[in-house]
Amino acid sequence: MGGALNDKNEQLNYLNQKIQMIGDLLDNIDPEDTTVEDIDRILDMLDQLEGKCKVFRHSWESKGAE
Fold first, then answer.
1. Which of 33, 40, 46, 59 is deepest in the core (most CB within 10 A)?
2. Within a 10 A sphere around the Cβ of 13, how many other Cβ atoms?
């Protein structure tokens, strides 16, 4: 998943994979062993996901203006 994603289907698949990955992580996390650093990493993942959503939204808006 290292290249540019220009197709809406590719972008949605990317987001879906990331959301599933975060969901799997949360499903498998042991509350007794979770640290503040673990929570910070989850927050970073969510921030990255939000950033990617904004990039895709901008891409969709600019393609709609063409």
1. 59
2. 13
pLDDT value, residue 42 = 96
Number of domains observed in the structure of the chain: 1
**44 is in which domain, residue-wise?**
8-64
Q: How far apart are CA 19 and CA 21, in angstroms?
A: 5
Total count of residues recorded for the chain: 66
In a domain, 1, yes or no: no
Task: Report if residue 49 sits inside a domain.
Answer: yes
Reported pTM? 0.81
| Tokens found for residue 53 | 């959503």
d(CA 41, CA 25): 11
pLDDT digits (tens, 9 = 90+) for 7-61: 899 999 999 999 999 999 999 999 999 999 999 999 999 999 999 999 999 999 9
Q: Is 3 part of any domain?
A: no
